[in-house]
Design a protein that fits this description.
about 80 residues, two-stranded antiparallel sheet, ribosomal protein, Ribosomal_bL28
């Protein structure tokens, strides 16, 4: 499963780990993806979203109705 936030579109970042001996190896920085279930009054049902921790804060600020409307406008299935 992809590590992409449905609200913000946050995806993994890539970089390098540097060991004590200064050997560099490739690594991946995954966002903190959570599965959250929200009640959406405008749809009259629960919606299960894959959101990052920052996406949860965005939902708290803007409201679930506005966020779900934007996801649907993008053409994603909710």
């Amino acid at each position: 499963m992809s590590a992409v936030c449905q609200v913000l579109g946050t995806s993994p970042g890539f970089g390098r780990s540097i060991s004590h001996s200064h050997v560099r190896t490739r690594r991946r920085f995954d966002p903190n993806i959570q599965h959250k279930r929200y009640w959406v009054p405008s749809l009259g049902r629960h919606v299960r979203l894959r959101v990052s921790a920052q996406g949860i804060r965005t939902i708290d600020r803007r409201g679930i109705d506005a966020v779900v409307a934007r996801i649907i406008a993008r053409g994603e299935k909710v």
